[in-house]
Amino acid sequence: MFTVPRPTAESLDAFYHPADNAEDGWRRITGGLTKKKLDKLDTRYEPDRAMARRAVPVILDAADVPSAVLRPSVLDFGCGPGAYLDAFAVKGWETFGLEPNPIGQVAGLRHRMIDAVPAEPMFDFILLNQVLEHLLCPLDTLRALASAARPGAHVFCAVPDVDSVAQHGDLRYVAAGVHINSFTATALENVLRVAGWGPVRVFPRKTWGPFTSAAGEGNAFAVLARREPPAQANSLAPGALGPAIAALRAWGRHVGADGKFQRSSI
User: Fold this and answer.
1) Is there a contact between 77 and 126 (Cβ–Cβ < 8 Å)?
2) Of the given ranges (27-36, 107-116, 187-196), which has the lowest mean pLDDT?
3) 47: preceding bond cis by omega (within 30 degrees)
4) CB of 82 within 8 A of CB of 48?
5) pLDDT tens, residue by residue, 38-91
6) Lowest mean pLDDT among 32-41, 177-186, 238-247
7) With contact defined as beta carbons under 8 Å apart, do 77 and 195 qualify?
8) Domains of the chain: which residue ranges?
9) Would you say 74 and 96 are in contact if contact means Cβ atoms under 8 Å apart?
10) N or C: which end of the chain has fewer CB within 10 A?
11) 3-class secondary structure per residue, 216-245
12) In sequence order, what are the beta bridge partners of 161?
């Protein structure tokens, strides 16, 4: 699913990479990032690193990284301050980050930053943690990342959970504001197949949620997939949006006259 009207590429670029004089922007930082500001921000994201240190072993346990790779490499596409890269680095991985927002300079303190997805295969693992919902063309991005992946590489995508919106009630998180795309689990698996990734495992909200919120009640799910030839349309799972329709109708039944979601009525 996607929001209408669609933003332009220019408006998204201005929002995620705002100028110092911009009135709005994602994690807007005025006055540039001095060494003092970088150090202060670096300390602020320690809770994110703690969650990443718990999450990465779970992700890697579900993946089969080729033993022939002496020092595997990971790309975090939309890495933010680099919390997940920090967790991979502890395990001996070569770490790369891509982040258009100035907050990526925090990740750059410890990891190699790139400005674009390379055309040649060079990564054994790719992360898109809470990223696909922000992109104008998520399929194009997944295809480009497939070209940058080595044989046997994995991709891990975490997105807001449409399927359980009637349980968590946070429709504004699922599809509003900067979240311009929404995926059911089946839809995300289909998109991955078309882009050249074969789904390996789905991490439902109850499994993945604890790794996305300090309170352990995050509203995201995730899919782990392995690099493989793109799937044909006739091999995709049908009815991918059916669960979304059912979930949205169920969500609506729990919205009171005041327009608020009544969690206690579930």
Assistant:
1) yes
2) 27-36
3) no
4) no
5) 878 788 889 999 999 999 999 999 997 766 567 899 999 999 999 999 999 999
6) 32-41
7) no
8) 10-265
9) yes
10) C
11) CCCCEEEEEEEECCCCCHHHCCCCCCHHHH
12) 183
d(CA 24, CA 8): 16
Distance between CA 253 and CA 266 in Å, rounded?
Answer: 10
Q: Is the pLDDT of residue 214 over 70?
A: no
Return the SS3 of 54: helix
pTM of the model: 0.91
Which distant-in-sequence residues (6+ apart) come within 8 Å of 235 by Cβ? 193
The pLDDT value given to residue 67: 63
Where does 135-216 have alpha helices with state H?
A: 138-147, 165-168, 171-174, 185-195, 205-208
Q: Note the helical H segments in 45-184.
A: 46-62, 83-90, 104-107, 138-147, 165-168, 171-174
Is the C-alpha dihedral spanning 161, 63, 212, 26 positive or negative? Answer: negative
- Round to whole Å and give the CA distance between 125 and 96: 10
- Cβ–Cβ < 8 Å for 130, 220: yes
CA distance 244 to 73: 35
Structural tokens at position 263? 């969690």
53: Cα separation from own chain's centroid: 17
Token pair listed for 124 = 């054994």
Q: Is the pLDDT score of 21 beyond 80? A: no
Q: Which residue has the tokens 């060079």?
A: 122
Residues whose CB is less than 8 angstroms from the CB of residue 113 and which lie 6 or more positions away in sequence, other chains included: 96, 97, 98, 99, 104, 107
The per-residue pLDDT for range 125-183, each reduced to its tens digit, is: 999 999 999 999 999 999 999 999 999 999 999 999 999 999 999 998 998 778 999 99
CATH topology of domain 10-265: Rossmann fold (3.40.50)
